[in-house]
Amino acid sequence: ELLSSFLEECGGERSQSQNFRCQVVQRPGGRFDTAFFSAENKRFKSMTDVARFLNLAKAPKKGLANISKKGRGSKDVQERRLKRELEKLKKSKLKATKALEDHDNNVNPTDQLLVDQESFWDDGSNAAKAHKEGRVLPRANIECFPGIPTYCIPDLLLVWDFFCTFCRVLSLEPIELDDFAAALSFQVSAKDRNSQTVGELDLNPPSFIPVYLSECHIALLRLLIKDATSDLWWWSILETPEMVEQEDEYLVDRKRRPVTAVVKIDMESLLAVDEDPLVTTKWLQALEDVRTRKPDSSGPIKSAVKNAIAVTTNQHVKSYLKKAMRSWKAKSAGVVKRAVVWLIDRMKEARPDLWGRKVSTDEIAQQKKLVADEAALEMENIIEEVNDDNDGDMNLEEDSDDESDSDDDDGSDNEDEFADQSQQPPSPGKLRSSVAVNENDETTPVTTFVPVKPVPSVVDLLLPPGKPVLPTDLVSALSWPSVIGATSCRVFQWYKRRRNEVDDSIREFRELKPMSVAERRRREECASSRILSECGDITDPGYNHIESAIKHLCDGNDYLDLTAVQRLGILRMLIETAYDTHHIQLSIEDNFKARANAVKALDAEERRAKKTAKEELAAMESAARERLAAEGRDAFIATKREELIEDIKASQEYSVEFIESLNDEDIIDLDDDTKAEYEALPTADSFNKAEVNAVVKKIQEETAFGAESLTVLTLDEIEKRDEE
What we know:
- This protein is an all-alpha fold.
- 61% of the residues lie in helices and 2% in strands.
């Protein structure tokens, strides 16, 4: 019927529709499709296709409607695209205009400064001419701190940084760099010196010294004296070549320098004696105590030698030890120690079986022969003085208790030590050696790395025999300059010895000839620049700031007579020594440990914060899913309740109050369909990530506002609520 009416509207007849049949098909989505078939079973999708097939005059032409629609759509899309492009161009123009205005308003401060200060350049000087010609001016050598030369600025910064870094270890209060430089360069004016009498200045010479300089020197002095490392260098000015075997705790891992023979002995006969291995091991262990003793510990060395003589049954060993004891003196047992250590080393080489090694008899005999031949070559270079054998017995029979007690003291008197050395007659061999050295120092090799001992100063003679023990009156505000001078002298002598050891070790490692005496003397003259190698000790020709400052203080002169460079050099020397102390090293280790612990704590805190944030986010997501599920259930119950109310209103079976009084479980259990629909509601795990994130954001907003629930309203909703 519809097809007949449509054909009449298109100019056809109703009878034309009789040759067509209609077929309606329902698609899976619920939509119905209508198709028309002709007598020839040709399919048409719509009545318009049937009218066009019959060539009716008023039938719509194919594609006109769609074309006009597409044309209108494409035109609208093009207009919108052009509008967006126009808006982008307008925004770009605004940005460019703003950038141009900012560039015009913000002039470069440097260019402005040059323009403003152009008048200062035109003063007729060479700098002004160079500036006008466009040449680069050299950097001027400006003294940044009055009284401190420019080349001393690195040393100044190093010293000031040390006091600021280790202020807790030194118990110092850090000060500004300008104040520290002013204290270093402080000089007493002539007016202040003339304001007091000479006697008053002599009674209190450090009265004008800046307080911070006094505190720095006293703190460094206390740090150095109370540290165990000061035992290594406090007696360095009294060291002799016979004391070169003194233990150095910094070099225990280094290969020990081989000891040369000092006493003649027939090593082949000594090794040929058949002695019980247990007895040999016992007297060698007794002599091992000598290796760890200092050369001035004459009492313990003598006791160890006596014990070894009493234990051994080898007459050659007894004779050798008695000959070595001839040179024994109170506070001077260096030769005895060298002889004992040489014997121990040779015995260890010749008898490896005594120390747990499995060696055949032939190998032992071969090793004994090798050691005996080497010892015979060494014996040829020894010139032994002929003395009565009773001298050694006399030294052994004397009671060593007094010497042992005296060894417990901190040291011996410097004046007696130098007096003994001046009265001791030299041997003919030593005289010949000294003459040879004087004749040709350029070719004579050095025999020891111990530098020449300095002449005892006034302060050395006034100091007590031993190292000052804290607390002491020597380290005070009145006496510290003299003690600082004595300490710097000892430190300087110790570092010269250490540098000499390094030189000899390097030449030995590279298999070079030993250094000559003249070369060693030239190296010791520039020892200050080698010790302070970080910035260097800039010295004038023939003048050394550090050595002159040490001599000035050791002579008991006033500290304020030193220049700023000399004061800085003294502080550099003490700081170099302080870096080797256990207290500073422990402080550095503690700082590294504290930094490492802080980094670990920060990492742990970051991990904890990430873990907490992750747990909070997981809890929020779980709460969001539960909220979505609860909202779905509440919406379902509310919908069912409204449906029941509508049904009751129509049937009048129950009252509305009765339906509203029903709880959620009653509504769910009302019938099987409702219960099935309720069970089919989405659970907490069935929601997608987008829905959960939206609810999480809402929960975060509620938490930020401190509310249990947050409702977002539009302006129209707010106005509507206000009207209500």
